[in-house]
TrEMBL record, chain A:
Domain MacB-like periplasmic core residues, every copy: 99-278
Organism ancestry: Bacteria, Pseudomonadati, Acidobacteriota, Terriglobia, Terriglobales
Keyword hit for 4Fe-4S: no
Protein origin, superkingdom: Bacteria
Keywords: Membrane, Transmembrane, Transmembrane helix
Official protein name in the record: Permease
Transmembrane regions: 96-120
Cross-referenced InterPro entries: MacB_PCD, Perm_prefix_1
NCBIfam families in alphabetical order: perm_prefix_1 (NF038403)
From TrEMBL, chain B:
Name of the featured protein: Transcriptional regulator, PadR family
Superkingdom, taxonomy of origin: Bacteria
Residue ranges occupied by any Transcription regulator PadR N-terminal domain in the UniProt entry: 16-90
InterPro entries listed in its UniProt record: Metal_resp_DNA-bind_regulator, Tscrpt_reg_PadR_acidobac-type, Tscrpt_reg_PadR_N, WH-like_DNA-bd_sf, WH_DNA-bd_sf
Organism of derivation: Candidatus Sulfuritelmatomonas gaucii
Residues in the signal sequence: none
Gene3D superfamilies: Winged helix-like DNA-binding domain superfamily/Winged helix DNA-binding domain (1.10.10.10)
SUPFAM superfamilies assigned to the protein according to its UniProt record, in alphabetical order: Winged helix' DNA-binding domain
Amino acid sequence: MTMRKLRAVWIRLLGMIGAQRDDEEFAAELASHVAMDTDDGVRAGLSPAEARRQALIHLGGAEQTQQAHRERRGLPWLETLVRDFTYGLRTLGRHLGVTAIAILSIGLGIGANATIFSMVSRFVLRPAPMGDPTTLLGLHTTHGSDPCCNNFSFPAYTDLRDQAKSFSGVAAYYELIPASIGGGGQPERVWGQGVTSNFFDVTELPMVVGRGFITGQENAPEVVLGAGLWQRRFNADKAIVGKPVILSGRTFTVVGVVTPAFHSVDQILDTEFWVPLGNTR
Amino acid sequence: MNEKPDVWQGTLALMVLRTLETLGPLHGYGLARRIEQTSGNLLQLNYGTLYPALLKLEQEGFIRSRWGVSENNRRAKFYELTKAGGRQVKNAAKEWEQTTAILARFLAPAEEA
């Protein structure tokens, strides 16, 4: 039964093509029907005109019958939809100015959304490329019973680091430090973070070249560069490790370049360099 | 005189199939007359409603049609039962008998116990 219904829908779909010819064919069928009914009426003694009138009454109206037949032949709602669509297109075509503005604003809207989305997806939705994100936790203090703030005093941090037994390591970072970078080309303002010396070990960040900081050396004049900055200002120089970089007038030695996928722990800030926390005091 | 009842929804198809089964190929007008006569002229059949029903049966593959010449030498479209249509008559008739039998039980006068 269901197969029969499907078959009928398919035929009705096809019925939308060549509707003109089907109309003519059904008109012929109806004409022959009315003619036969009229013949019978005349045989029964009616005048030809009255017989024909009766035949049309029996039928319930030739035009109504045509219409009912036409609706059964195709899929009326689909035809209406197609007609509405073409009507819409024609109307748009007549008002070119409005259409252009509408297309332009929709285009801009989509474009802006796509840009914002691609940025969000780059920075926020993609997890930071850290060793094993499931074992990495962010620590917050609470206020009331709600998580509140993640700014710890340095002594609180050192206590946590030394006494918390649940963690293999506790690192801290301080955001954000502006610095001007000069030397060879236009000076530029870049943003960086001060991090504890164990930051790159705790986060298990892959390095493009070099290494992170040596644990315990909180005041070492060393810097880890973001891949973006390294490519932009240093032409992705593979031999950059050991070379000096001047940040806001102070000289740091490059010890490593971090993987390009890393921007910051929460991925929202686009951090471009990291120095040991002691340098920021 | 009472109004003649209209044809119930869905029963027209069975009437058409059964008429074609017993009488063989018929044109639309002939079918309409036959159905009226078979009902003992009790049914008020609007002839126009027959054609969408015929088209539906044809789309479902229960009947097929071809142009021919009527007994009075008029060109007319003739409808005939397909094999699937033959099976459908039997199924639908069985269902209909079941339905009427069930209803008859409800309508029968209550037995005095």
